Amino acid sequence: MAPPTSGKRPATYQDVLDAPEHKVAEIVDGELVLSPRPAGPHASVTMGLSDEISPPFQRARGGPGGWVILIEPELHLGKDVLVPDLGGWRQPRLPTVQVPYFSIVPDWVCEVLSPSTAKLDRSRKQRIYARAGVGHLWLVDPRFRTVEVMRLHDGKWLTLAGHTDDERVRAEPFDAIEIDLATLWSQLGSFGTRVSEAAALYGD
Questions:
Q1: Which residues share a beta bridge with 87?
Q2: Which of 42-46, 140-144, 167-171, 185-189 is predicted least confidently?
Q3: How far apart are the C-alpha atoms of 53 and 136, rounded to whole Å?
Q4: Which residue range forms the structural domain that includes residue 178?
Q5: What secondary structure letter does DSSP report for 93?
Q6: Is 144 within a domain?
Q7: What is the model's pLDDT at position 192?
């Protein structure tokens, strides 16, 4: 990605701190990017996925444990400041979460796509996660009820699988358990998948 055009001041962390509270503020390739707060379906799917993964991996309730899973962690990856919907670290790499932001690169991030953020999530943020060395990336699209699972390989994203609808899946790096995707979409109701209809429903 090219640096900001001449004469345009690169964004600083103070710009993030000064951003409106109703916006998600990130610094992407030197540019301050403001996105709407997640709408209802987006938030519902994020919470649903956290509820599936956190108990067995973070709290070790009948599962392998060994992870720290956080909703909307603020990541400082070099000069970039990104806020994924979910982030996960293997516990030995993140001994404490009592910090305002995280400079330790996560082992896994998940972006829940919405009409206003999908282009950014799939392009510039995806490249930054690869450049920083994030091990796994999931892209979850509530509109089309899909989950894309990627692993970093030689600095590039290797797509391992694409899942949809009510599949039961084992997906890296959490393939020790089976996830019922139907639980993620359970609060979304029934609607068509045309982009215009989905965008109107999501409102973001």
A1: 70, 109
A2: 185-189
A3: 14
A4: 36-202
A5: G
A6: yes
A7: 38
User: In 10 A of CB 203, how many CB atoms?
Assistant: 13
> Which pTM value belongs to this model?
0.88
Distance CA 99, CA 85 (A): 18
Q: Does 106 map to a domain?
A: yes
Residue 169 lies in a domain: yes
C-alpha R_g of the chain: 17
Q: Which of 134-138, 170-174, 187-191, 194-198 has the weakest average pLDDT?
A: 194-198
Q: Which residue type is seen at 102?
A: F
Number of domains forming the structure of the chain? 1
* C-alpha–C-alpha distance, residues 13 and 6, integer Å: 20
The residue with tokens 């796994």 is 136
| Residue 29 resides in a domain | no
- pLDDT single digits (tens) 158-188: 999 999 999 999 999 999 999 999 999 998 8
Q: Which CATH number covers residue 107?
A: 3.90.1570.10
What pLDDT does residue 7 have? 59
- Tokens standing for 112? 């829940």
Q: Dihedral angle at the C-alpha atoms of 85, 90, 92, 96, nearest 10 degrees?
A: 20
200, pLDDT greater than 90: no
One-letter amino acid at 76 equals H
